[in-house]
Amino acid sequence: MSSTSLVPTPPPESGSYSRVSPAQAAADAIPLLVDDTYHVFHLTTPPFTRHHPPRLRSTWWRMRSKNLVDWTRDAEPSIKPSDDKTAPDADGAWTGAAVLGPDGTMNIFYTGYNLSDNGKQVILRAKSSDRHGTKFQYPGYEITFNGDGRSKLEHIDFRDPYIFYNETEKQYWMIIASRLAEGPHWSRGCIALLRSTDLDTWTFASEPLYSPNDMFCPECPELFSLPNGKWYLLYSRFHAPNSGTVYRIADSPYGPFRIPRDGSHGRLDGRRWYAAKSCPKAGDPSKRIYFGWTGDYVDEEGKWLWGGDLGTPREVCADENGYLRVEPAAGIEQLFNETSQAVPSKVVRSEVSLSAVGSTKAAFPDLGAAETEDLLLHFDVAKCDAHAFGVLLQVDADEKAHRLQFTPSVGDRYNVALLTNFPPLDDFWADQYGLHLLRPVDGPEIVRHEGVSLSGGVTLILRSQLIEVFCGGRSISFRLPLPVAPVTKDANSETRRLGWFVEDGDVDLSNVSIRHGGILWRTDS
């Protein structure tokens, strides 16, 4: 196998905010705000790895920023797995938390993974000598705990600690992703609670903080409160339904944690925006800044990998009903606008009208050189009397494409979905037509949000194969597979980056703009 074939779908850029290098994937983020500086640690895979176990022998890397646009990367990893094969972190330094201790110095708590010990997972602590974590003492040492709560959990799944200081109780809380030792196999996932006054000795709560009987294991949990008095529990589900990072709401840090009733089902995004974690926004405790990742996709294998590119930093706040809303972090779009060019108005008019009564119609702007550049698309919906409309993405000569589809719902609301380029067929039809398509784990609806207001417009960011959509306080993230040759023999191989479509009706779009060639952040290494 050639060296080039070892690299998954090419990342959108060389080593930068998104990942340490093109050969290494970024994964679970661990953000911490110290004074006015964002410290974003994230897991990084070993170079040129694809699958478990080598890909999960991860290290911790860090970057810092004061404005979420200008970033500085550390020259070396903060935490590395131990070279001692008997050490608890010999096969990976996995997700955890960064927290300031009682003495004001930064601490890292992380998950150690060791295959030779039946894949045992333990919580390790690495200390630094200053507030900003200039250097950490690693390998970390295993934390000590008391209480009988551990006996109620499985032996293996015990990872992803998240730590915060509970001001009301005057002690630190640690929540951990785990599984109950007994119960239905597929739904034992739970979140354990431990407490400490000094970060040294931890006491297990007698019962898990959260055990909803509906998931295998809740990865990368976090818990925080906002000035509205509500508590928010977030975690990531790696299986359907509602895979990806989800949230629950409570009036107390002890729960009960309820599923939001706003049509989101508690989803901030979808399956491909994963392990998202947050820290407070500098100067505004009513908002949180989130960091998640979208996985690499190995096109020749048709497989999604653990780890990929960090997504755009996102600002999350609660609306008047306490439900969370997602937007791009302030400054991201501004920087892109300042460093990009607009597609000429003769190519992309600010007003776009589409009509196709009783049929479906598509239209494609001639983007020219912008076809291969990063794009920022925005539009408002002026009027819609159609069954559905939206944006076609990566369109081949047969007009097979992924669809960002908007379907009118109740009142002025819309259901928003990202759809696969063509769903696979039943075996009979696939045999008859000779169309044996891939049967991906995603789709045909990759992501679906219900009851979304489009009053603030739609923003779409395209970075190479990565797409990020923001509308009505929801987001959609995905990595498009590389283009393949069209099915029909007489079709050429040209692929168009995007287009419009309308299904059975009329739609008028306003304030349409497409900008190309800009940047979303700057990075010093």
Report on the structure:
With 525 residues, the chain is mainly beta. The protein folds into two domains: 4-330, Glycosyl hydrolase domain, family 43 (Tachylectin-2, Chain A); 343-524, Jelly Rolls (Sandwich). The chain has two helices and 32 strands. It has helices spanning 332-338, 427-433, and strands at residues 26-34, 37-44, 59-65, 70-73, 93-100, 106-114, 120-127, 141-142, 144-146, 153-166, 171-180, 189-196, 201-204, 219-225, 231-237, 244-250, 274-281, 284-298, 303-310, 314-318, 324-328, 341-342, 352-363, 375-395, 402-408, 413-419, 445-453, 458-463, 466-471, 474-479, 496-516, 522-524. The strands form six sheets. Strands 22, 23, 24, 25, 26, 27, 28, 29, 30 and 31 form a ten-stranded antiparallel beta sheet that branches. It has a five-stranded mixed beta sheet with strand order 1-2-3-4-32, with no helix packed on it. Strand 28 (458-463) and strand 29 form a beta hairpin. The chain is globular, with a radius of gyration of 23 Å. The chain starts with 25 loop residues before the first strand and ends with a strand. Belongs to the glycosyl hydrolase 32 family. GO terms for molecular function: beta-fructofuranosidase activity.
